[in-house]
Amino acid sequence: MDSRELLVETMSELLWERGYADTSPRAVRERSGVGQGSLYHHFPTKRDLALAALERNVAALLPAVSDLDGPGDPMARIEAYLMRPRDALKGCKVGRMTQDPQVREDPVLLAPVGRAFAQAHVSWVKVLREAVAAGELRDDLDPERLAHTLMAVLQGGYVLAIAQQDPGPFQDACTGALDLLRAAAPAVPDDTHHTEE
User: Fold this and answer.
1) What gap in Å lies between CA 157 and CA 122, rounded to an integer?
2) Nearest 5°: CA angle at 82, between 76 and 87?
3) SS3 153
4) Angle, alpha carbons 121-99-112 (nearest 5°)
5) Gene3D superfamilies per the record (predicted)?
6) Which positions of the chain have pLDDT values less than 70?
7) Cβ contact 14:27 at 8 Å
8) Which of 55, 62, 100, 101 has its CA 20 to 30 A from that of 182?
9) Cα(131)–Cα(149) distance, rounded to whole angstroms?
């Protein structure tokens, strides 16, 4: 791994652990072992390095979201995505950045975060529409609203897990979302009461 890549990876980890405001160029140099001259050669400012690291975090998140777009049964893909093992106590690499005031107030740093959530929303809407078309969800559900709801459940689950230092609330939130989706399946006609004439 070259020094540029090492710097980006290190900043990516530190952003996830500490946030932007609490990550100094010195901390990046110390953890990566890359010298000051090399750091400033590749990234003249902390913001330049942070932007590269945010782009990396977004790139890491989106392949996981693209599992929603894969082949096969839509509800099975939703279930696999919701039940995927995650380190709930570390939170979402991308979502965590919305809690950092310096990222929130900087349109350039916030842009990759917003783009990641927009792309995730598109994937959610698509798989939910497929589930409706396949008769797995009722057709009176709004996939756009439901996509926002499911994304909010995941992000909120991280917040609850971190606040309580227990991954349980995150897992419960994901399982609860799945329970609600299953409850939103179309009613199956009950043929057991038909009598022979």
Assistant:
1) 21
2) 145
3) helix
4) 45
5) Tetracycline Repressor, domain 2
6) 189-197
7) yes
8) 62
9) 16
Which residues, 6 or more positions from 45, have their beta carbon under 8 angstroms from its beta carbon?
none
Of the options 1.10.287.1120, 3.10.20.30, 1.10.357.10, 3.90.180.10, the CATH number for the domain spanning 3-183:
1.10.357.10
How would you class 31 by CB atoms within 10 Å of its CB: exposed for 0-12, middle for 13-18, buried for 19 or more?
A: middle
- Give Cβ neighbours of residue 189 (< 8 Å, ≥ 6 apart): none
CB atoms within 10 A of CB 139: 8
Q: What is the pLDDT of residues 35-87, one digit of tens each?
A: 999 999 999 999 999 999 999 988 887 777 888 988 899 999 999 999 999 99
Exposure of 11 in the CB half-sphere (CA atoms within 13 A): 30
State the residue for tokens 């996509």.
147
**What's the distance, CA 56 to chain centroid?**
13
Structure tokens at 144: 């756009």
End-to-end Cα distance, the chain: 78
